[in-house]
Every structure is written in structure tokens, then in C-alpha cells.
Write a structure and sequence with these properties.
The protein is an all-alpha fold and about 100 residues long. It has one helix and no strands. It is rod-shaped, with a radius of gyration of 42 Å. It starts with 11 loop residues before the first helix and ends with a helix. About 0% of the residues are buried.
């Protein structure tokens, strides 16, 4: 035996106490992670509900109004195209009559 190193008697009580503390901390960590996941799930459901209500209250009626405005614009554009064709034909006829002596 080397006299520089003292002989250590095995005291497993301290080691067991530290292992027990580490196991308890690990269990608390697992419970904390599960709590965060559950809270995140409830937060996700609540946010989804709020977004759905906002869509029903604001976005859907606005989309209906925008669609009606776009339909009116399409009707106006088709009337303008038809009128432009008639005006072009009329202007062409007028120009032909003005060119003839």
C-alpha cells in the first residue's frame, strides 16, 4: 500500500443521497417539460380559435365585398370593351367619309 494515499472506507450513504437528489431533479425536469408541452397545446388551441373567430368576423365579409367590387369591375370592363369597339368602328367610318372628296 502506498502511504501517500489514505485508505478510504466506502460510504455509500453519501453517494446514494446524491443519486437520489439527481433522480428527483430529473423527475422534476420531466414534469416541467410535460407541463410546457400541455401549456403549449392549450395555447395553440386558443390561438387557433381566436384566428378562426377573427376570420369569420373580419376577413370573410371583407372578401365578399372585394369579390363584389371585382365583379362590378369586370362588368364595367366588358361594357367599356364593347363601347370601345363601337367607337372605333364609328371613328373609322367618320375618318373614311372625311378622306373622300
Amino acid at each position: 500500500m502506498n502511504p501517500c494515499y489514505p485508505v478510504m472506507t466506502p460510504h455509500l450513504g453519501t453517494i446514494n443521497l446524491l443519486l437520489g437528489i439527481m433522480a428527483a431533479v430529473g423527475l422534476l425536469e420531466v414534469l416541467a417539460v410535460v407541463g410546457v408541452v400541455v401549456a403549449g397545446f392549450f395555447f395553440y388551441r386558443r390561438i387557433t380559435e381566436v384566428v378562426s373567430r377573427a376570420h369569420e368576423r373580419y376577413t370573410a365579409p371583407a372578401a365578399v365585398r372585394v369579390k363584389s367590387i371585382l365583379n362590378d369591375g369586370k362588368e364595367i370592363a366588358s361594357v367599356m370593351r364593347a363601347s370601345t369597339g363601337r367607337v372605333a368602328t364609328l371613328a373609322g367610318g367618320v375618318m373614311d367619309r372625311l378622306r373622300r372628296p
